[in-house]
Amino acid sequence: MNWILLGEIAYILIVIFVIFRVLYDTRSTTKALAYILFIVFVPFFGMGFYFSFGINYRKRKLYSKKIVEDESLRERIRSKMNAYSEAIRNSGLISQKSQTLAEFIRRAGNSPLTANNDVKLLINGEEKFPELLKELEKATSHIHFEYYIYENDITGNQIADLLIKKARQGVEVRFMYDDFGSHSLGKSFLKKLQDAGVQTAPFYKIRWYAFANRLNYRNHRKIVIIDGIVGFVGGINMSDKYRNDLKKDNHLYWRDTHIMIKGQATAYLQYLFMGDWNFCSGTPFAYSESYFIDSTNQETIENKVVQIAASGPDSKLPVIFYSLLEAISSAKKSIYITSPYFIPDESLMDALIIAIQGGLDVKIIIPGVSDSKMVNTAASAYYTELLQVGAKIYKYNKGFVHAKTMVIDDDLAIIGSANMDFRSFDLNFEVNAVVYSKHIAAQLTEAFENDLKVSEQIDANTWLNRPKYIHLWEKIVRLSSPFL
Predict the structure, then answer these.
(1) Quick one: which of 224, 255, 262, 317 has the fewest CB in 10 Å?
(2) What is the pLDDT of residues 11-20, one digit of tens each?
């Protein structure tokens, strides 16, 4: 009996220790409570789940981004960056209401405002991939690739063949892929690249002894940098399913958004790539001005203002989450959101509710067909709350909408890799492009309106009057939102 009593006391002490660990590590009250209840009511498994998936690596800095070792050089770069941002802020190129957003991203994300950018909106893979192939063909110095999903299919091999060709021409080619998202890449595919001189590296390689932990923190970014001046960023991965011009049996129409940037904003995409590569590769490369081209005096480049917002377990603050919150709060007329996974936290929900009650035009496009029943069920509970206050929510019916975009009023457009969910805000490495441009905002609004034509608005009365057991089930599944 004494051994049983000692065992019970030891278990209680361990549970208390883990609960204190949760309280210390977890900033979100909702998330902390979810973990604590799981630990208390599901013995042992709950604790194992928390240590595998719940530890806050933002506090522990999953890796360091100090890519410039020389302190004086780093300070010169920072001073130049701040002066450049300040000059753009004072130039009148961005609206007064966007000033707070721009300054937050600069301070919290160390990301400067950049002018002298040419920005091209790319709708779906059939617009992105031809542009990408064209720009890759022009490369003379270096090509840097970073993708969450890269598949060994028609599209993947088409790009790979061009990378091999450029590497044999003497162009530096670095190819980084997420080890989970690109798990289907075989050794023969990678060896083909390596034999041609392409440097390859898996991001945060999954190993059996740290499987759950490494599985949880993934690089969800989609970045290409060519010669330090051309950049691609957005939601489109490297796979045939992102293209609607390849006619395959049972192919689901895929709606996605990407952008191509030519200009100064590409420098920060380069900075992100260097940090990610030097973390996961055995062959890090050092800072050099040849990777960061000054385009401020190039007359062929337009003068659009772009800022890159990035965050992940390596950042001090959830920059993307806060930037979306500030963007919504800054709106004066309209907020148009497209997201395949809509599981916002309480702060974003409150900001949207305030905007709706303030008379703003708030429209949200979500998938009619979802690739995750559990995520879709949890998201439905959030739709209910928004519909009750007058939000306009539309289900995209032409296929699967995977775009992650937001348009604020008529002068701010956000395109990137981050979904509007806990995973993108807290766990994944993500990147968004924030474009302060009426022209790009108008283009993205037009694309949004085209999507509305093939979407069905959710009727609030019908939705709210569904059987109570459905609402109850959605609320129950919503409790798992912090883990999705």
Answers:
(1) 317
(2) 788 888 888 8
Q: Give the tens place of pLDDT for each residue, 121-149.
A: 999 999 999 999 999 999 999 999 999 99
Helix (H, G, I), strand (E, B) or coil at 192: helix
| Cα distance between residue 30 and residue 25, in whole Å | 13
Contacts of 289 (CB under 8 A, 6+ apart): none
Domain that residue 46 falls in: 2-55
CA 464, CA 449: separation in Å to the nearest integer? 25
**Same-domain status, 340 and 361:** yes
CATH code of the domain in which 220 resides: 3.30.870.10
Beta carbons of 68 and 77 less than 8 angstroms apart: yes
**Looking at the DSSP assignment, which residues form a beta bridge with residue 145?**
175, 224
Same domain, 333 and 260: no
- Ramachandran region, residue 427 (left: φ > 0; alpha: ψ -120 to 50; beta: rest): alpha
Report how far residue 414's alpha carbon sits from residue 309's, in angstroms, rounded to the nearest whole number.
10
Residue 266 domain-assigned?
yes
Q: Are residues 331 and 304 in the same domain?
A: no
SS3 261: strand
Which of 254, 273, 308 is the last residue in one of the domains?
Answer: 308
Q: Can you tell me the distance from the alpha carbon of 295 to that of 117, in angstroms, rounded to the nearest whole number?
A: 8
Same domain, 295 and 187: yes
Q: Is residue 18 part of a domain?
A: yes
Bridge partner list, 309 = 432
What span, in angstroms and rounded, lies between the C-alpha atoms of 233 and 223? 5
The number of helices, as runs of H, and strands, as runs of E, in the chain is 18, 17
Greatest Cα pair distance, the chain, in angstroms, is: 84
Question: What is the CA 245 to chain-centroid distance, rounded?
Answer: 25
Residue-wise pLDDT for 313-368, tens only, equals 878 889 999 999 999 999 999 999 999 988 888 899 999 999 999 999 999 999 98
Question: Known catalytic residues?
Answer: 220, 222, 227, 402, 404, 409
DSSP alpha helix (H) spans, 346-396: 346-357, 373-387
In 3D space, the residue among 271, 308, 317 whose CA is nearest the CA of residue 291 turns out to be 271
Same domain for 186 and 125: yes
pTM value?
A: 0.87
Give the single-character DSSP code of 247. -
Number of domains composing the chain: 3
- 175 assigned to some structural domain: yes
Q: Give the whole-angstrom CA distance, residue 152 versus residue 350.
A: 43
**3-class secondary structure, 308:** strand
Q: From CA 241, how far away is CA 129, in angstroms rounded?
A: 12
Residue 3, Cβ neighbours under 10 Å: how many? 7
Which phi-psi region, left, alpha or beta, contains residue 63 (left: φ > 0; alpha: ψ -120 to 50)? beta
Contact call for residues 270 and 290 (beta carbons, < 8 A) = no
Helices (H), 169-252: 187-195, 211-216
